[in-house]
Amino acid sequence: MQSLIDIPPESAAAAEAVGEALGRVQRVFDDELSTDLPPVMDLVRHVERYRGKMLRPTLVLLCGLAGHESAGLQVQPPGSILSDAHIAVAAVCEMVHMATLVHDDVLDEADTRRRGATVNRLRGNEAAVILGDYLIAAAYHLCSRAGTPRACVAVGRASKTVCAGELLQLHHRDDSSLDEDTYFEIVDRKTASLIATAAELGADLSGAPEAARSAFSAFGRSLGIAFQIQDDLLDLTGDEEVVGKSVGKDLEKGKMTLPMIRYLSTERPAARGEMLSLIERACDERAPSHPAAAQIASLLISSDAVSYARERAESYIARAKQSLLTVPESGARRLLAAMSDAVLTRGY
Amino acid sequence: MQSLIDIPPESAAAAEAVGEALGRVQRVFDDELSTDLPPVMDLVRHVERYRGKMLRPTLVLLCGLAGHESAGLQVQPPGSILSDAHIAVAAVCEMVHMATLVHDDVLDEADTRRRGATVNRLRGNEAAVILGDYLIAAAYHLCSRAGTPRACVAVGRASKTVCAGELLQLHHRDDSSLDEDTYFEIVDRKTASLIATAAELGADLSGAPEAARSAFSAFGRSLGIAFQIQDDLLDLTGDEEVVGKSVGKDLEKGKMTLPMIRYLSTERPAARGEMLSLIERACDERAPSHPAAAQIASLLISSDAVSYARERAESYIARAKQSLLTVPESGARRLLAAMSDAVLTRGY
Predict the structure, then answer these.
(1) CA-based nearest residue in chain A for residue B126
(2) Domain over B2-221+325-345 is classified CATH 1.10.620.20
(3) What's the confidence (pLDDT) of residue A1?
(4) What are B102-129's pLDDT values in tens digits?
């Protein structure tokens, strides 16, 4: 994420502190997953390669810095604000997220993730299911030892919400009548809740008061929703090489994305009928590069569906930045704003 | 479990207290899983039917009572010893266990559990994977609110150990050279660790000192190993109607059970070779009632393999009861001993 953005000069110290802290997060992450069983270590090493944008840990750390400004404590250099608890909670959020990636790949029968083969592809669904469970257990084990009971409650609640959102999404698979309200309810739970929790906990661990914690939570929630819409768009229009994972999967797995929901709810019956039969054909073809999938993408792009989804993502980013304005200005806050803009321009 | 044992008269008060507390555990279990999303509720209701022996919650509660005697506190009637934390931790252990059952059924492609269809059979693997995750998240969320940080650490550690054990087992799937040491390492991690934790936490929550906590942990560990050996035996010789789940699954899924390991490591090369080709045929037939599976069962029974496994289970039960002798005598302790014996006589 950071490599995508230009770092404003006044944010240099915050960026440096976060960069250094991310290194510590990675070490904690690796240490916590390590085991004395070689075959288990082998799988763990594979999953370490999944580490990508580190969005959630970065949010814990940056909101930790920005939240310190709200705490009314003595101003400290960024490098001394981030505690072991920040590092632990950052690693916890990434582990929980990584577990959902590993399990999602099983559900989606995906072959590629971060330009490498998925665990399920290489080692079978069984290994992927248990490895995901191992990651979740490691996350909670770490969290329970971080000396931050409130973080444990928040991470537990968010994880439960993520699962409920995924179950709701599964219930609406292949449901071409899915409306926008339900779409946003799913996204809010399955994607935005953990991102909001990461942002809020970072600030909480720096002693930020209730009002500031709520602002960071609202910021994370809006950012998370925008992030998911951008994911929808990338699945449709992304380049598999750049995205680093299989594209066209949403369509193939019957997941209704925002552009598709928009198209089906606004086009005339004839166009709607044509789209539904194209979806059916695309599912039969089961390969995103096949003609039906390409035709779907071109219909969604030439209608207002893709631009509508893009506008919705932009408005959530505007809302996220609005939430930030209620907390004191700082180098970290500027970085959070720059990160928000980068969500919309990211190609992966 | 309790219905299988004769309750000694001096244990009547303990049995009544545990019976009443188990009712509270079930209510907490149901409350924690309930959600405002009807399709999720629908899946949760299905899983509630899985509730069977309630071994782990029963251990938390009984060790809670027996541990109180070690705490050096004023003697109280059993009904007033068990706290909300005991109830919460009992429900947590059952949720973690239930999650592993739901995921195991996906891994084993099992169709039947507790005489009903499995989630994966009814709703597909996707729903079963996420539902298991939902159960784990609910378990941690509940644990983090129980005001017992030590329990959170212990449950996190045990869950991680269970997963590592399952990954090790998966690594040795179809490994006909698996030795007893590795078998016991797998069993210790995947089955005994959570049972040991349930027993230890029950006593811990009653204020039992370190030595007593270790005794309860050792008790649970031996009990758990015996429990798993009995599971192996039931998969081989059990009646599907009585066991309430698919039998012959271990064989079909390439899991080496203790009788099989014994047979392969002690029989002469010719008998060994015959067994290996029978296993291959049984796997091809993929149905436990087919001729090869029946022949395998009969070979294992007529050799010393089954009786050897039974003796090993008996010796672990003897060890479990030995561990109990180091804690003060009580009605609850007697019930724990009676429960241990019942592990060997259970048909399900």
Answers:
(1) A107
(2) no
(3) 45
(4) 898 877 676 666 667 777 777 778 889 9
Q: CB distance A163–B35 less than 8 Å?
A: no
Rounded to the nearest 5 percent, the helix, strand and coil shares of chain A are: 75, 0, 20
The encoded tokens of residue A151 equal: 């973080």
C-beta of residue A102 within 8 angstroms of C-beta of residue A119 = yes
Token pair, residue A145, equals: 């030892």
Residue in this structure with the two tokens 């439960």, named with its chain if needed: A160
Smallest CA-to-CA distance from A199 within A32, A31, A105, A58 is with: A58
CA distance A125 to A119: 8
With an 8 Å Cβ cutoff, are B166 and A39 in contact? Answer: no
Q: Does domain A11-65+72-345 have CATH number 1.10.1660.10?
A: no
Cβ contact, residue pair B140, A130, below 8 Å: no
Comparing CA positions, the residue from B301, B272, B312 lying closest to residue B187 is B312
CB contact at 8 A, B176 and B264: yes
Chain B interface residues (partner A, CB cutoff 8 A): 35, 37, 39-40, 43, 99-100, 103, 106-107, 125-127, 129-134, 136-138, 140-145, 149, 152-153, 155-157, 159-160, 162-164, 166-168, 170-171
3-state DSSP percent of chain B in helix, strand and coil, to 5: 75, 0, 20
Q: How far apart are CA B306 and CA B266, in angstroms?
A: 13
Mapped onto helix, strand or coil, the DSSP state of residue B127 is helix
Amino acid identity of residue A63, one-letter, is C
- Specify the 3-state DSSP secondary structure of B117: strand
- Whole-angstrom Cα distance, residue B117 to residue B120? 8
ipTM: 0.92
What is the token pair recorded at A240?
Answer: 């598999």
Contact present, A116 and A48 (Cβ < 8 Å): no
pLDDT of residue B58: 97
B255 chain-A contacts, CB cut-off 8 A? none
Q: Is B50 strand, coil or helix?
A: coil
Q: Please give the helix or strand (H or E) that residue A126 lies within, else none.
A: helix A119-144
